[in-house]
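User: My collaborator sent over this chain with a note saying "see what the structure looks like." That's all I know about it. Can you take a look?
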Amino acid sequence: METQELIFGLINILIINLVLSGDNAVVIALASRNLVAKQRKMAIFWGSAGAIILRIVLTIVAVFLLRIPYLQAIGGLLLIWIGIKLLTDEEDEDEMEASSNMMTAIKTIIIADLIMSLDNVLAVAAASKGNYLLLIIGLAVSIPIIIVGSQLLVWLMNKFPPFVYIGAGLIAWTAGEMINTDKKIAPLLYNFSHASGEEVAKFFNTTAPELAKYYNTTVDGIIQAMPHSILNMPENLEWVLPAVITVLVCGSGWWIKSRRKAAQADKSSAA
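Assistant: Without extra context I'll predict from the sequence alone. Here is the result:
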């Protein structure tokens, strides 16, 4: 590979990392936001370092990962769980808990980054054109990008608590996109989106007949009330599923936190 091609390839990889590492920085920020400043820095450093090492290994074997069916879909489901967990993690009350949670934060950072890096590593693998030296240099340079970005996000989340939901929403959206683009799942979603209103009505009649009773209407009425774009425009499927998952994750996180606060209030009043 000539020097000009090497430089161009490195620049390309850096741009890819800048564009695709935003959600990874969100995970790091969410996982470490409740730690004290010193432990937060350690969690960000070691979590990011471990994530980068695993990302390099993952990139090297990216070609083989493409052949594994349902890999992205499973990763998407894990991200849904991680998004809800990060939203519902409570702040620590003493040093013992904080130290323990620092290790939990490091593990969360590494696992979530590994899952969310599938799109990143595949794009980087293609940009490197088989040059492993270029690959490793490009990924190594992404370390400060992710660390600095995550520290900025931690500051935002501590100063503006609702910002946490934006971060969790980005993770949930990524989960939906991963499920959407899985080699095995994508055709199933595409075929389902082509189903006619009659076929969808049959599906509801056989699997969820109580739904119509709950809304005091017929199943046909439910189908007719659905947005036309969801039933008959497959091209919209790429944003419908991520949007639904984002709402579910943020809504579940809010509901769980509300229930916990209510339970704590009941305990306080009882005492």
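A starting point for your reply to your collaborator: The first helix runs from residue 3 to 20.
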